[in-house]
Amino acid sequence: MPISAVLIVKNEAHHLRECLDTLTWADEIVVLDAGSQDETCAIAREYTDNVSVNTDWQGFGIQRQRAEALARHEWILMVDADERVTPQLRDSILKAVQQPPAVYSACRLSWCFGRFIRHSGWYPDRVLRLYPKAQASYNAALVHEKLVVPGDLSVQRLTGDLLHYTYRDLRHYLEKSAHYAQAWSEQRAAQGKTATLGSGFIHGLACFIKMYLLKAGFKDGKQGFLLALLSAHSTFNKYADLWIRTRTSAPEKR
């Protein structure tokens, strides 16, 4: 059965070529750009004619839905530009699409700050990425979007890793974290949710304990310690942003 490899991108010129090199076996590559200001679209067009641009950003969920709609084939493999499909995963995908329709998860292995992270709650990081277009689709969440799987569709596991080159450096981590914190707090505020700085501190502390101790982040060396600290900080920031949005007053006029 033919497969459409689908990507949503923005300013991914530094990643995209290496990602697409691992997808040339797919029957179709679909790239939906959100308004890149670098060479992302030019690189994408070296691999496929199915390159579109939609700058009306309404969140990750909506953008993935738009990208799905551009795919011509029944099977969709959703991939991010900072990911790489390994040969073992590719072979598993090609076998899976010969079976009855199902949703398939891939095990994602992330490279961060100089090493692959095999603990810290990061691995095995199972993500749903291969699915029949007519029977499953992404929800409309602004951030942390999820694939909605109908009850009559089973979830199976692929073999092989999906390599994830998540952060280029510390600045990239902090910028990405701030973006997600803002989107998360906007979504929660729209739902009528509130937060306190105390709840942010407690969630941040719990995040560190979970990652570094319960999920054996200490086995990831110095990177594991750094990631636990940064994740705790990012967790606190989400709640702090929500507190600022919902509990603080507008500037006084003089």
TrEMBL record:
<feature type="domain" description="Glycosyltransferase 2-like">
    <location>
        <begin position="4"/>
        <end position="109"/>
    </location>
</feature>
<protein>
    <submittedName>
        <fullName>Glycosyltransferase family 2 protein</fullName>
    </submittedName>
</protein>
<comment type="similarity">
    <text>Belongs to the glycosyltransferase 2 family. WaaE/KdtX subfamily.</text>
</comment>
<dbReference type="InterPro" id="IPR001173">
    <property type="entry name" value="Glyco_trans_2-like"/>
</dbReference>
<dbReference type="InterPro" id="IPR029044">
    <property type="entry name" value="Nucleotide-diphossugar_trans"/>
</dbReference>
<dbReference type="Pfam" id="PF00535">
    <property type="entry name" value="Glycos_transf_2"/>
</dbReference>
